[in-house]
Every structure is written in structure tokens, then in C-alpha cells.
Amino acid sequence: MPTFPPLQNDTFLRALLRQPVDYTPLWLMRQAGRYLPEYRATRARAGSFLGLAKSPDFATEVTLQPLDRYALDAAILFSDILTVPDAMGLGLYFVDGEGPRFERPLRDEAQVRALAVPDMDSLQYVFDAVTQIRTGLAGRVPLIGFSGSPWTLACYMVEGGGSDDFRTVKSMLYNRPDLMRHILETNAATVAAYLNAQIDAGAQAVMIFDTWGGALADGVYQEYSLKYIRDVIAALQTEKDGQRIPSIVFTKGGGLWLAEIADSGADAVGLDWTVNLGAARAAVGGKVALQGNLDPTVLFAQPEQIRREVARVLETFGAHTPGSGHVFNLGHGISQFTPPEAVSILVDAVHEFSRPLHAGANRGN
């Protein structure tokens, strides 16, 4: 079993567990990405996106890049949610300008019935990257592992890539719910095993990205996405080496189902920018921590406007009280066109403006 240096900054983990902290911690979805010139340079050396994602050395390098540039409170594994269906034999590849594609999408009953949980050895490069990143962090901040949700993975697996309307996967859902349930059950078992292996390799928190949950109708979301997210969470190990391993669920477009997501068993719920943080806190803040939710396009504004929007998000959540928890993040991934200096302004503003909001909760403990 790997051994790692002691953690120096546990603010992110404490916030997820709704424990007192001195300030609101932050990290950014896609914080290691194309907006950073150093990432683009490493990506060019790797030769392809998959070359980058499947090399523990390159994955470690790009994961650490934003931490070397900004005072972020967590690192997140550099990988892709589609490594899982790739390990299931669907044949992942990328087309420039078009995104991910699968050579063998799930289009008929025989393909679906043949789908099975893959041997986790086929994803060893991910677990090696987790251990290498955790070692490279040297205890600076915690490391987040992640996976796509069973439903979101199914969208790519059936559609064969991205989609504007999810017509193929939703047609299967309505016409052959038995086939869809087989895919989702297999995905849930795979995601749970995948996240547990990341935890064993060194991940200190895990996040489930339900990127396409919001494409489902009310009622259908609960049956075909949230149910399987619950199954994953129920199978996760929640402690490693005496430390709690918190979990986060993020359903983009899921504000309608906030209370139900908060009952999923997760420690925290990620929110997109359409949700009012104060209302979300009032609804579920005593049960889970909340993560989010600045509109990523704010980072294209002038510096003072960025600072104002950061203050507005923090003030919308409000002053912290014992048992409240907030992790600052964007409402979705950072744009590849974001000026790197805008992120510096964001990070500094969150740390500066959030400290007074924590004073009361800290005096109360």
C-alpha cells in the first residue's frame, strides 16, 4: 500500500464534512485544461488527448500545473469519464473538433447483453496516476478522484459520442427499459469498483459527474439516473487509513431535484449556476455541504466585476454557522478560452471575501 506525506491543508475535506474552516475552499472543474499554456505544451508533447490521459507521468504533470500557479484547495485527477466505457471494450477515440467517439456503441440487444463489469486491471494507468499525483502533491492539498455517473456514461455508450438531443439513448430507455437497466446496473457496479480503486490508490474524496442527468424528465431522472447514483454511493468505501472519504454528486441541470440528490447518501451536492445558493442551503444545508456555483463566463469579465460576482456568490450562501459547508467552484467546467490571470483574481477574491463569513461559526465551536 502506498504511503503519503501528511496533509497540510485539509480545508476542502473539512468543508465537505461541514466542519469549521477559516475560509471557503475552492477548486475548479477542469482546472487542469486548455486555458493554461503549460497544459497545451504538455498536451503537444503527449501527441494526443488519450496519450495524455493514459500516461501517469503526463497526467501527474497536468494535474499539478494549476496547483503550481494558483492557491487552490484541492487537486482533481486528470482523466476522462470515458475511460470506463473504453475499458468495457467500446473503443474510445477522439476526433479533432468533434470530441469523443466510440467504435462500438451499444445499439442492439446482443451488444447490451454482453456488457459486463471490466477487469479493473484495464484501468491500472488511472490508479497509477492517482498514486503518482498524490505523491507529487506532497500533502499540499487533497486529491479528488472521479467518475461519470451511470446514466451519463450510458449516454455516450449508446449514442456513440456526444449528442444534442439524446434521441438514441432515450429511445432505448422508453422502448427497451430492460436493456437500459442492464446498462445502468453494469455501469453502477463498474463506477463503484472504479472509485473504490481510486480511493485505494490515494484519492481523498470522490466526485460523480452526472453531466447529462438534466436531459431527463422529472420522474425519469429519479428512476434512471439518481437510483443508480445511490447504488454507487452505497457501495463506496467511506474511510481509508482512518480518514473519511467524502463524496460529491453533481447533476448539471439538477436544481429541480436538489432535495432528492441530497438524500442520495453523498456528503456534498454540486450546483450549476442556475441554482440560488441561499435557497439551496435553506433547503438542504443541514444535511449536505454545497459546492458551486459561479457562472464560468464571469471569468471573461473585468477584474472588479469578477470580484463582485465572487462576493455575490459567497454572500448568497451567507454567513457560516456550525454544521454548514460550502466549497466554492464554477457552475460547470472552466472554458478553454479563459484568461489565466482571471483565475488568479477569482482565487484571491474567494479566500479574501470568505474569511469574515466564517468568523461566527468558528467562534461557535
UniProtKB/TrEMBL annotation:
<keyword id="KW-0963">Cytoplasm</keyword>
<dbReference type="InterPro" id="IPR038071">
    <property type="entry name" value="UROD/MetE-like_sf"/>
</dbReference>
<dbReference type="InterPro" id="IPR000257">
    <property type="entry name" value="Uroporphyrinogen_deCOase"/>
</dbReference>
<feature type="binding site">
    <location>
        <position position="211"/>
    </location>
    <ligand>
        <name>substrate</name>
    </ligand>
</feature>
<feature type="domain" description="Uroporphyrinogen decarboxylase (URO-D)">
    <location>
        <begin position="144"/>
        <end position="160"/>
    </location>
</feature>
<comment type="similarity">
    <text>Belongs to the uroporphyrinogen decarboxylase family.</text>
</comment>
<keyword id="KW-0456">Lyase</keyword>
<feature type="site" description="Transition state stabilizer">
    <location>
        <position position="80"/>
    </location>
</feature>
<feature type="binding site">
    <location>
        <position position="156"/>
    </location>
    <ligand>
        <name>substrate</name>
    </ligand>
</feature>
<feature type="domain" description="Uroporphyrinogen decarboxylase (URO-D)">
    <location>
        <begin position="25"/>
        <end position="34"/>
    </location>
</feature>
<dbReference type="GO" id="GO:0004853">
    <property type="term" value="F:uroporphyrinogen decarboxylase activity"/>
</dbReference>
<feature type="binding site">
    <location>
        <position position="332"/>
    </location>
    <ligand>
        <name>substrate</name>
    </ligand>
</feature>
<dbReference type="GO" id="GO:0019353">
    <property type="term" value="P:protoporphyrinogen IX biosynthetic process from glutamate"/>
</dbReference>
<feature type="binding site">
    <location>
        <begin position="30"/>
        <end position="34"/>
    </location>
    <ligand>
        <name>substrate</name>
    </ligand>
</feature>
<feature type="binding site">
    <location>
        <position position="80"/>
    </location>
    <ligand>
        <name>substrate</name>
    </ligand>
</feature>
<dbReference type="GO" id="GO:0005829">
    <property type="term" value="C:cytosol"/>
</dbReference>
<dbReference type="InterPro" id="IPR006361">
    <property type="entry name" value="Uroporphyrinogen_deCO2ase_HemE"/>
</dbReference>
<protein>
    <recommendedName>
        <fullName>Uroporphyrinogen decarboxylase</fullName>
        <ecNumber>4.1.1.37</ecNumber>
    </recommendedName>
</protein>
<comment type="subunit">
    <text>Homodimer.</text>
</comment>
<keyword id="KW-0627">Porphyrin biosynthesis</keyword>
<dbReference type="Pfam" id="PF01208">
    <property type="entry name" value="URO-D"/>
</dbReference>
<comment type="pathway">
    <text>Porphyrin-containing compound metabolism; protoporphyrin-IX biosynthesis; coproporphyrinogen-III from 5-aminolevulinate: step 4/4.</text>
</comment>
<comment type="function">
    <text>Catalyzes the decarboxylation of four acetate groups of uroporphyrinogen-III to yield coproporphyrinogen-III.</text>
</comment>
<keyword id="KW-0210">Decarboxylase</keyword>
